[in-house]
Amino acid sequence: MPIKIIQLTIVLAFAPFLFGVINRTKAFFAGRHGSPLLQPYYDIFKLLQKGAVYSRTTTGVFIAGPMVSLSALIAAACLVPFAGHPSLIQFDGDIILFIYLLGLARFFTVLAALDTGSSFEGMGASREVQFALFAEPALFLSLAALARVTGRLSFSGIFSPEVMNSWSVYGPVVFLVLGALFIIFLAENCRIPVDDPNTHLELTMIHEVMVLDHGGVDLAYILYAAAIKFWLLGTLLAGMFLGTFSRGWMIDSVLFVLTMVLLAVIVGVVESTLARLRLLKVPHFLIIALALSAVALILTVRV
Amino acid sequence: MNTWVDFMIVAVLLLNLMMLSSSRIRSCIQIAAVQGVLVGVLPVVIELHHAASGPIIASFFSVILKGIVFPWLLFRALQEAGIRKEVEPIGGYPFSLLMGVVMFAMGFWLSRRLLHTGPLVSTLAAPVSFATFFTGVFLIISRMKAISQVIGYLILENGIYLFGAVFLGGQSLLVELAILLDIFVAVFVMGITIFHISRQFDHIDTQKLTELKDIVISK
């Protein structure tokens, strides 16, 4: 039990660090020195000390939005295993609870955006929901394929080291799921082929536009929730390689955190080398993830 | 060993999906070529340890034809007709991609219903080869340009070849060579036809071929 709480603490403490790594990688590609690795922490602490200003048109939903999103994501963090070791809470079917917790966080972000009454934020909310329409089924199908491959229904069962040795038997399936999950990972975290986290260009942004009216503590919650979401979905990707190591808790954890940092570097490289897709092309990109995960699920039927 | 065959067959399937979602005819030709080479090499990979000379010769010819000759013929036709992009197909690209998945599921169902053979090299081969036939037919139906329809024809042949390679083994040599020759002639003739169509009508959109020129002129 104490070890599981330490795991959760590591997740909650390390999550914003990955954003720092991504920014550093992008700065390196652009030939700049870049912001300090701990900049996301400074940002969050700075925002936590500020007061929030609320528009007169907003209601309680606007204030509740960031809090509900953050708590849903922390709850989701309790479900996801750490470095192939069981998570704090586990039961059969917790993969479905995980997806719906992410859905709840998204729903409240969207509600808060709509609550401002600004047409600008409504546009972002509409895009967010439209893209989630494709990303969510793909996530469901990928996890269903993994559940079929491993024969387990909980995260801790699917991502434990023994069962993920199935790379050799179910190679193609795991490979397809990996591809689908990477696309979902980029889309859900508003990363570059889908959304640009840095831009404030009204025609193209999705996530940034929805949180424009939040400030102070609320914005700190949103930034922190985004970091946790990045970590959790990254865990699904990193978990695919966990079959290769299990040498005691300490070494596993260090290797796992290093894998996550490597993932952040990969995202940084993707962001520096790819251009964002045209907004009309984004559903097409997400349908590729849907197709890959559907094919993976069909392949498990008889492999 | 068996995993490699599985990976190659899944790669054939993924190339189908790529083909269904790509709009540039140039990359469609390349995808068809890569798929042809992959399918051509497959019989040799399956019998890596005790390969007879027959299958090796057959796969050598098919790789040469599908990897070099067909793309060259098609690229030449493309240049002569002066086209670059496929127009929006019936239903759009995302729909085509989803249809690809549906066709794969159909192939799975069909191969379960139809085939009750002994132990196979790979259980994926039959569904993927059915999916490849369907993809070829779907391309012929849904794409507008004559050249995309030729590519659909090539994909169809890749499916037949994959099926033959896995189920008939070395005995299908004669059949495969005959089919290859047919396809070669077909692509050759279609290349010339596309050139003539584009010179006659200024485009190679088969939807518009029904509007005969003579009638318009005689009005």
Summarize the structure in words.
The complex is a heterodimer of chains A (about 300) and B (about 220). Chain A is mainly alpha-helical and about 300 residues long. Chain A has helices at about 1-30, 40-50, 60-80, 95-115, 120-150, 155-160, 170-190, 205-210, 215-240, 250-275, 280-300. The two termini of chain A are about 35 Å apart. Chain B is an all-alpha fold and about 220 residues long. In chain B, helix 2 (about 25-45) packs antiparallel against helix 3 (about 55-80) and helix 2 (about 25-45) runs parallel beside helix 6 (about 145-165). The longest helix of chain B has 29 residues, at about 55-80. The radius of gyration of chain B is 18 Å and the shape is globular. Chain B starts with a helix and ends with a helix.
Write the topology of this structure.
The complex is a heterodimer of chains A (303) and B (219).
Chain A: H1 2-30, H2 39-48, H3 60-79, H4 94-115, H5 119-150, H6 155-158, H7 171-188, H8 207-210, H9 216-239, H10 249-273, H11 282-302
Chain B: H1 2-21, H2 25-46, H3 53-81, H4 93-114, H5 125-142, H6 146-167, H7 173-201, H8 213-218
Helix pairs in contact in B: 1-2, 1-4, 1-5, 2-3, 2-6, 3-7, 4-5, 5-6, 6-7
Q: Output the helix-strand order of chain B.
A: HHHHHHHH
According to DSSP, the number of beta strands of chain A is 0
Instruction: Name the shape of chain B in a single word.
Output: globular
Largest sheet geometry of chain A: none
Low-confidence stretches of chain B: none
User: What is the subunit arrangement here?
Assistant: heterodimer
Average pLDDT figure of chain B: 80
Q: What is the helix tally of chain A? A: 11
Query: What's the Cα radius of gyration of chain B?
Result: 18 Å
The CA-CA distance between the termini of chain A, in Å, is 37 Å
